[in-house]
Amino acid sequence: MAHQAGTKGYVPEESTSAAAAGERGAGVPATTAGQGSEREGGGAAAVPAVVAGEGDRAWMTRPERGTVLGIKATLLFCRVFGRRGAGLLLAVITFYYALFAGAARRASQDYLRRIGQPHGFIASWRHIYTFARCALDRVFLVRGETLRFRITHTGIEHLRALQEQGRGALLLGAHLGSFEAMRASSVDKRLPIHILAYWQNAKMINDFLRTVGADFDVRVIPIDPRDTSYILAAKEAIERGELVAVLGDRVGVNEKTCTAEFLGAPARFPTGPYTLAALLKCPIYLTFGLYHGPDRYDLYCEPFAEQLELPRGRREAATAAHVQRYAERLEHYCRLAPLNWFNFYEFWRAE
């Protein structure tokens, strides 16, 4: 079973090349002062950014356990016995996975313990099973089969206002529930969303998704750490009044991080999304799509910053404050649906 890989939004801390073409001369520009959304003084302390180590990138080096053949078999089972019937097959598959994938199971149990949920073997299996249901639903959502699901919207008025003004924005999410539900719903609601994503560690599943979704490639801005042209692609999309999504809870290749309190303990988070937001000088919104079985997704959108500021001279402190605020909101949404957080690796390495 592949982790929800391939949906991590890595952005390098030192942006040159395409970033320079999109903004000033080179590097990351300082933004203007006076942004009220930035927390001044208290809150998060200045935490020096560090380059991610091998442990932070553990999620990227794990092989895909699922195969396209297995996915197709599950879809065939779904056609014969229905989506709910396919849940029985997923239950068996995920039970086997929870039994033998010790590292993922222990990571699940660690998270569940920290969030105050039962954290025995059965609880971990239910956690992994929830991920599998969202992964299966992702195929239907890529196909545009949104009528299979009950989807609610909270905060969509913020994106509507952007659309009316012809403005683009950066959407900051996490490996929490299903971002595909948000993006598939955006097609119905005429809100184009592109996802900035590192795909190489989930190439097999993403190649398969290209075959089931006609516009899958169009809606993805793939990340290549050796080529920063994807930053220019993101800038062009926002200038067209479209939305670009990045996920802020996994660390990418050579990406800088800082430490924030999350579920009562320090954890590493990438700083790249905040550098990108400051570079693009666009609004940034938090977006999460929480799964509630058997077929409901609750989508949330809330403002994070009208224009994110990283002033020169205190860039690290400002970034740390934004990361801490993100971690606090992520914790809030994790508590709304505890089985929806899909980071099955050792996350709290900072302890």
Summary, kept brief:
With 351 residues, the protein is α/β, with parallel strands linked by helices.
Write the layout of secondary structure elements.
Blueprint: H1 18-22, E1 50-51, H2 58-61, H3 68-100, H4 102-114, H5 121-142, E2 150-154, H6 156-165, E3 169-173, H7 179-188, E4 193-197, H8 203-212, E5 220-222, H9 229-239, E6 243-247, E7 256-262, E8 265-270, H10 272-280, E9 284-292, E10 296-305, H11 315-336
Parallel strand pairs: 2-10, 3-6, 3-9, 4-5, 4-6
Antiparallel strand pairs: 1-7, 7-8, 9-10
Radius of gyration: 19 Å
The biggest sheet, with number of strands, parallel, antiparallel or mixed sense and barrel status, is: 7 strands, mixed
Low-confidence stretches: 1-54, 56-67
Strand order of the largest sheet: 2-10-9-3-6-4-5
N-end to C-end Cα span: 28 Å
- Beta-strand percent range: 15-25%
Shape, please?
globular
- Count of DSSP-assigned helices: 11
Element order: H for helix, E for strand: HEHHHHEHEHEHEHEEEHEEH
Mean pLDDT: 77
Structural class designation: alpha/beta
Number of strands: 10
| Helix content estimate | 40-55%
Features:
single chain, 351 residues, alpha/beta, 7-stranded mixed β-sheet, 3-stranded antiparallel β-sheet, 11 helices, globular
